[in-house]
């Protein structure tokens, strides 16, 4: 069974993120990310929370067992639909431009991931509904 750092790397790669991208999303330096993946250091709870918000399976990296997702416990069941997430991100950026509000990349990524997670059960992406949801998010 792989160790913590190896499982963290596997999850990062499953999400399609570079070490720098994950470090940015989780609010740590590239050096810290590298040390976590080497197993030289362990992340704190805020890192793990941000990792989870980004779609990472925290249970897997800690225990080696995948989270239960409706009785299915395989990696493929929790894969991110990248085009869908990209569309949500594009819509969010468009709304932000209309309101002249500027968000740091990390906040934008986390917000897009939160909206994505809310919409996971939906088969089709109803852009009108997503637009309403995003307006609420942008104005909070």
Automatic annotation (TrEMBL):
Residues annotated as domain HTH cro/C1-type: 8-48
Pfam families recorded: HTH_31
Xref: InterPro entries: Cro/C1-type_HTH (IPR001387), Lambda_DNA-bd_dom_sf (IPR010982)
One GO MF term: DNA binding
Protein name: HTH cro/C1-type domain-containing protein
Organism: Pseudomonas frederiksbergensis
